[in-house]
Amino acid sequence: MKLDVLCMGEPLLEFNQIPDRGKNTYRSGFGGDTSNTAISVARQGLSSGFLSKVGNDTFGRQFLELWQREGVECSNVEQHAEAPTGIYFVTHDANGHHFTYYRSNSAACLMRSEDVPTKLLAQAKVLHLSAITQAISNSFCDTAFAAIECAQENGVLISYDTNLRLKLWTLELARKVIHRTVPLCDVLLPSLEDATALTGLENPEAITDYYLKLGAKLVVLKQGDQGVRVANGKKVCEISGHAVQTIDATGAGDTFDGAFLSEWLRLGDPFVAAEYANAAAALSTMQYGAVDSIPYRSSVDEFLRRKL
User: Fold this and answer.
1) Beta strands across the sheet bearing 86-93
2) What total of structural domains would you count in the chain?
3) Residue 250, domain member (yes or no)
4) Is residue 61 part of a domain?
5) pLDDT band at 22 (very low <50, low <70, confident <90, very high)
6) Domain residues for 210?
7) What gap in Å lies between CA 117 and CA 147, rounded to an integer?
């Protein structure tokens, strides 16, 4: 099967806090950054696949059913007999959204290099992964680098989100692994917050210059409601954010990644793709949940038409 985008990482069942007159009410849903991205790609009308392990449990089966409903190829996702599917909680306050994870020794942590389906990967156009993929276990980190090597050998583009989670590893180790990965990337998708922590730089221009010099071919710097900066060493484009009524920003960056990759593959223009993804991410913040909020192409197109 030939895929547009093959994503690899850890799926996590989500419990998202919903305001209910002061009560702690949580709604279950689905999450995991690269799983969200795979679904985002599918909802934009391109083909995607997901590579991981889940538990042989209710949550793992729910993920398999989700991917099948969404049209995400998941035949290489193994159900582990003993290790569980990870979960996380999202809480909200005046300072934004906050995450609490229960993922220690999850099934995804047990991914190994030999689990990479080289034939499927070789036929994909893009391999997408994130730093979370590398942070959850040493074995998955090794698997990620093995997948990147396989992709490069077969002319598959590498897409990488720095998605920094300092609860998973130290900043020093994160910087070492992430900056080892950056030169291997065809497109780098950091957030401004992550990039500032990793580089010590705060200026968006300095950050994109830094990562281009480090070896990334294309840098797409996500700045939340402030928009996006796109640079490829020859051209730079600043895209303003959209003013929307934000309810929950969980997964907005993942939605962006999938929308960007979809439009980039469809049109071949990263600057137009970033405009499209910027709109998709803004729309995703107007609903609760990492997956429920991912817009379909028709919604993004309509949003952009209204902005003209």
Assistant:
1) 23-31, 12-20, 86-93, 96-102
2) 1
3) yes
4) no
5) low
6) 5-9+33-52+71-77+113-307
7) 9
Instruction: List helix spans (H) across the chain.
Output: 33-43, 58-70, 118-122, 131-135, 138-153, 171-181, 192-199, 204-214, 252-267, 270-284, 297-307
Q: Is the dihedral of CA 178, 116, 15, 80 positive or negative?
A: negative
Exposure pattern of 221-257 as b/e (b: 16+ CB <10 Å)?
Answer: bbbbeebbbbbbeeebeebebbeeeebbbbbbbbbbb
pTM exceeding 0.70: yes
Name residues whose C-beta falls within 8 Å of residue 54's C-beta, 6 or more positions apart in sequence: 11, 60, 63, 64, 77, 78, 79, 80, 85, 107, 108
CATH classification at residue 259: 3.40.1190.20
Whether residue 127 is contained in a domain is answered as yes
- Look at phi and psi of residue 151 and say left if phi exceeds 0, alpha if psi is from -120 to 50, else beta: alpha
pLDDT tens digits, residue range 149-166?
999 999 999 999 999 999
